[in-house]
Amino acid sequence: MFEQLREDVRVVFDRDPAARSTLEILTAYPGLHAVMFHRLSHWLWNAGAKWLARLLSHIGRWLTGIEIHPGAVIGRRFFIDHGMGVVIGETAVIGDDCTLYHGVTLGGTSWQKGKRHPTLENDVVVGAGAKVLGPIVIGRGARIGSNAVVLREVPPQGTVVGVPGRLIAHKDETGDTEHREKMATKMGFDAYGATADAPDPVAHAINCMLDHVHVIESRMQRMCEALRELGYEPGDEDFPELGSCEIISTADELRKIQLGEGDKTG
Fold first, then answer.
1. Which ranges of the chain would DSSP assign to H, the alpha helix?
2. In principle, which of 96, 128, 215, 248 could form an S-S bond with 75, CB 3.0–4.6 Å?
3. pLDDT, tens digit, for every residue of 220-243?
């Protein structure tokens, strides 16, 4: 029991950069409190003390704002960030290393008895306000975007956004992106959010730029190798830090520069 609690605390440190101390996590993290209430109420539920289990889960909901039915099955290293408004139904099954944000509902679409809530396989992340409804399976490593409404199964490593939820990327379809990550790291660029699974024209443009730079660098390396064979040793120059470059932050500033209305005081 105490080992599981230590594991739950380590998970908070791993997934929430705002966590500062173990004392803070134990006393001021409702997501952790909700999981602790559920562990006990689930044990009571399986032991046949269903009324007591429901009463304990009700107290946990009152204290944390998170409603987890004691019949739900939850794996290890489960993390609820912020947590207010999270609802997890009776027949929901959650695997290991899953993360839910506030306002998430794992609900049912039927009043019939039996399996009526979703199953989340290992390493699934569900964004704030998302609704995952029905006895569907969310594959391993899948990502559910904020405020999405998911009514169909999601394949492993898939990404779903929108209402109704639509699959916008799958690991088998995105191709090799390793060179993008390496190039972004080399340039000092944080590629967070600039991935092929985001339906964002800016992200798409950045990905195209990284692909283009990758091709140019590959050709330059071949040219340098040819020059070395001829006896010339080209120098290796470091990339400049992107943080030192001045960025035009708004369209209005860009428009002023194009019209010659920029700052002329210098």
1. 2-15, 22-28, 30-46, 50-64, 171-174, 178-187, 201-229, 251-258
2. 96
3. 888 888 888 888 777 666 655 544
2-174 belongs to CATH 1.10.10.10: no
Retrieve residue 139's tokens.
């594959």
Q: Do the bridges between strand 119-120 and strand 93-94 make them parallel or antiparallel, or are there none, so unpaired?
A: parallel
Query: pLDDT digits over 22-70, tens only?
Result: 898 899 889 999 999 999 999 999 999 999 999 999 999 999 999 999 9
Q: Which of 95, 157, 163, 79 is nearest to 129 (CA)?
A: 163
Q: How many residues does the chain have?
A: 266
Angle (nearest 5°) at CA 181 between 96 and 227: 150
This prediction has a pTM of 0.63
Q: How far is CA 38 from CA 67, 90, 222, in A?
A: 9, 12, 59
Q: Are 104 and 146 in contact (CB under 8 A)?
A: no
Distance CA 258, CA 214 (A): 30
